[in-house]
């Protein structure tokens, strides 16, 4: 049971640190706000047009914002070399990974909850399809971004120019997940087709990559 | 100096550690007996920190082997090792007690036991466990002592300390040195890297001299003319 | 092994010239597209070869994580690099073919898009190898190699579904293929496989030599310091 | 027809470039080997 206890403690610690500094969440919020505004110059945000591209717009904004959080998570552990203390303890590498992934998941979900009303107001959005489906789509899509993101942030941590490395590694691999999120969202907003296929795809993607990351993370953490 | 019969706690056999072309350790052969206090001395960049990190299992030797507490896989004995690094290994935004509570959890110490252990550890380094101030606002000396407290959490049999007295005022440093001596008397093994060997002279069993990645001398007395 | 190289080189040269002759003169001219269709004999084998090499990369990455043998790491590096070269050929010849046939350089057809994404994944793999150094670099690369390979089916499946919903130009050559054309295609593929093998071999030996040199250099710096 | 030749030439240019890179790497290693032997 130590696995869960360590995971819970690490998650609580991360949330507490973020609550005290509010570094990541502030940067992230402002960043996605900027994206919303800038995109409005790129096209006429009338209701009909925006409905078709809103799915892509929303998720691109969240993706970029997620990068900010993901770079923060491990940077926090590098300050004062705290990660060394974790590596020297008998605690399992995967409880650290899951705690970090859940932590990032919470941050991004909070961001989405705060930004969604803004998107609706700015772009006069409204769902024609079943709106409740957006909930599983957001959950699955965010997890897909965050699980790989946490993993690749840990990898890019050990390279030169780490902040640049993360998006370079994360974006290509996230393409299927992004496609899934964007199309599922568009399907719900336009109500023209079913989002069923894309949700299934996201589930499969999440399962495969969560397992793969858990299997590989210990190696990454133990690498100097 | 009595010769102990117990098997060595650390055996380094031809340990070489390179970072790219730079060799931090150039073939360290050494044995360290249990229950002793070793003071590791050497110039900056001589490889003292790398030696401690290698013993702690944080760095893998490029060549050669090292075994700690009878294990080649240092991860398997990590719960018996305490390590105080040059950086504090603490989160600046949390209080000392919160920090220790978290790290105690990593060693499987929870709830009341954790509260007790953390208080004890903080008191043993002469700090106030109820101090409600984030570690980032501590003075350098307090942070050093809190860092030592963190290294003591798991009641380690082997303690690796990297510059525990740097930036600590003389009085506190003396107190810490006394504490380290007491721990040796309890049967713990200590490796202390320091630039102020004088503080530990009464307690130290052996002085280990490192120069450009090699152990060049081991003496039971501090040589004249050093600090 | 040493003698195998010139033999393989000669076989490759002969096969490539024969395949070139077959592709340009031997194969029948396609009715609707004309001679341009002959790009097919370079375009498709390049892609197949690249896929094969990426599969090798996947296997070698797993092998490296399990066995930790440097040879597996070199195979992984070699196959990814040569694979990217072959996929680049595929991606460059594609638009040159598309231009006269469809009148456009590029279309976001599912095959083109997913191949492009796959190319991006492996370029990011090579970037990671470039930007990480030291003993841990192969481990990181192996992890990315495995995740990248796992991603490939998702890429193809998702983009296939995405693009087939929207009508798009249909690629020629699909459906039934003239047996004579299939014959020429296979000869070309065999020739390119030989070429890939040859290039990989060279690259492999080069990397082995490079690592030996690095080893010698680090040894040298080790000796210099201990004088 | 020009497109056909363009494609074939492009293919060999890419392979040739890669081989040229390899040759350059090789000569660099060769030079380092020489300096090591001394």
Helix-strand layout with pairing:
The complex is a heterotetramer of chains A (224), B (227), C (227) and D (38).
Chain A: H1 2-21, H2 23-42, H3 47-78, H4 82-88, H5 93-123, H6 134-156, H7 162-190, H8 196-222
Chain B: E1 10-19, E2 22-32, E3 37-42, H1 48-56, E4 63-68, E5 81-84, H2 96-106, H3 111-124, H4 140-152, E6 158-162, H5 170-185, E7 189-193, H6 197-200, E8 206-211, E9 214-219
Parallel strand pairs in B: 3-7, 3-8, 5-6, 6-7
Antiparallel strand pairs in B: 1-2, 1-4, 8-9
Helix pairs in contact in B: 2-3, 3-4
Chain C: H1 4-26, H2 40-67, H3 70-102, H4 110-131, H5 137-164, H6 179-226
Helix pairs in contact in C: 1-6, 2-3, 2-5, 2-6, 3-4, 3-6, 4-5
Can you walk through the features of this model?
The complex is a heterotetramer of chains A (224), B (227), C (227) and D (38). By secondary structure, chain A is mostly helical. Chain A contains eight helices and no strands. Chain A has helices spanning 2-21, 23-42, 47-78, 82-88, 93-123, 134-156, 162-190, 196-222. Chain B has 227 residues and is α/β, with parallel strands linked by helices. In chain B, helix 2 crosses helix 3 (111-124) and helix 3 (111-124) packs across helix 4 (140-152). By secondary structure, chain D is mainly alpha-helical. Helices cover 95% and strands 0% of the residues of chain D. Chains A and C meet through helix 6, helix 7 and helix 8 of A and helix 4 and helix 5 of C.
